[in-house]
Write a structure and sequence with these properties.
With 272 residues, the chain is an alpha/beta fold. The chain is built from 9 helices and 15 strands. Strands 1, 2, 3, 4, 5 and 11 form a 6-stranded mixed beta sheet that branches. α8 packs antiparallel against α9.
Length: 272
């Protein structure tokens, strides 16, 4: 089996892919969009993409890919503890750092440390935490937020460990493929939907499809439709499998009142 992930080696995506399929061949991709395309083309059997962080919230890029860019389904999920570290060229002192590279999610998850220890430094986005190390090593006075593995791969010095804003920092990754798992008895279903019009009570009526059947919705948020300012696509995670009778009935009811309903997938919930 081949698993695509957001690379290069040394990223949390690589660690997630390894944990999900320890014996698989890994395929490094430059973006989450490239991860999806690798699975769509058959170059990889599955792909892992970060979708939510306990400190910084949802990963908008992944949500938008699932909504707009792919017909792939979510077949699984896993929770990965995340520890961030400040790394730089050997001999660099924290007080000399003028520029800090990392993935936008990592920068957001280390906000308190950066404001306290590197208040005058500029922040710069990188495609991944591993690429951030490469960029930092190429620029004098630069540092990166990255994994210890990435620091070791590229020969960077670790200036500070565990700089994330909370000790319980974790990222939820979803596994995408063309496969839809059978019900396991402990599943989660992820969906997106939008309405063709806008009036009071629409969202309440949609949620009643779940609450009226005793289905627990574990997460709800929205994303812009990309078509008109002020119009949104709603996303819900709920407990159960789309093939469970009550869940299937809720989805049928929701489908009758929405202009678009997309089921990203039903998949076994990750153990915490």
């Amino acid at each position: 089996m081949k698993v695509a992930y957001l690379g290069p080696p040394g990223t949390f995506g690589e660690e997630a892919a390894t944990r999900y399929a320890p014996s698989a061949t890994l395929l490094s991709c430059p973006t989450h969009g490239a991860v999806a395309r690798a699975v769509e083309s058959g170059e990889a059997d599955t792909g892992v993409m970060a979708i939510e962080n306990s400190l910084n919230g949802s990963v908008a890029e992944t949500l938008d890919i699932l909504i707009h860019d792919t017909a792939l389904t979510i077949e699984g999920e896993l929770l990965l503890p995340v520890v961030h570290n400040l790394v730089a060229s050997p001999g660099t002192a924290i007080e000399d750092i003028e520029l800090i590279y990392s993935h936008p999610q990592a920068l957001g998850q280390c906000r308190a440390f950066l404001e306290e220890r590197c208040p005058g430094s500029q922040r710069a986005a990188a495609l991944s935490t591993a690429q951030a190390v490469e960029l930092a090593l190429a620029h004098r006075g630069a540092a990166a937020i990255a994994t210890l593995r990435a620091a070791a791969i590229f020969g960077a010095e670790v200036l500070a460990e565990g700089i994330q804003d909370g000790e319980s920092n974790a990222t939820r990754f979803v596994v995408i493929s063309t496969h839809q798992p059978e019900p396991s008895g402990r599943d989660r279903t992820s969906i997106a939907f939008e309405f063709s019009d806008d009036h009071a009570g629409l969202l309440t009526a949609a949620l009643t499809q779940f609450s009226g059947r005793g289905i627990n919705c574990t997460k709800m948020e929205s994303r812009p439709t990309r078509a008109t300012f002020g119009e949104y696509i709603f996303l819900i995670d709920f407990e159960g499998h789309a093939r469970d009778p009550e869940c299937a009935a809720a989805l049928d009811g929701l489908r009758s009142m929405t202009s678009m309903l997309k089921v990203f997938g039903s998949y076994p919930q990750a153990s915490e």
